Fold:
Amino acid sequence: MRAATVERKTRETEIFISLDLDGAGDYDVETGVGFFDHMLEGFAKHSMIDLKVRAEGDLHIDMHHTVEDVGIVMGMAVAKALGDCAGIRRFGAAYIPMDETLSRAAIDISKRPYLVWRVNFARPKVGDMDTELFKEWFHAFATNAGLCLHVENLYGENTHHIIESCFKATARALREALELDPRSDGGAPSTKGSLGS
Structure:
């Protein structure tokens, strides 16, 4: 069973995340940030990862620590659940349209983390949330999950649609990349014999 639970407590946040990579996309998310909850719920649904998130952060200051730390812990949980990555497809990619918007994501579960983020927003906020925080979440998630992740908004106008399409594209790409490959020999999908440095 490819599942994991990770807890992390600092002076700024307390995060609990439990997930199952082979789930049905069930979710139970409470971060104290409504729009962020909505994005994580969509991420769970479209990645087919069962996800439970509990986050308490210093929201009286701003949302930065909460959003970034959820990315850190969620990435750690994915990496823990993947283990040595034996038998996975490793690569995944997806295009997601939402009305006038089109975004794409491509993933290599390489254990050599990297983020390419080509996403711009016309508005500084969506709801109460600063749009600059989304790059922070994607960076924290990719770094701690060990993903080489490229996210690009090809075109779009509505900030909500742009953000949501980026989350959904990443979720669909991750779903493909972490699937077990029936043609695999059961080892790591690398000529090196293992993933990572």
About this structure: The mean pLDDT is 94. The first strand starts at residue 3 and ends at 9.
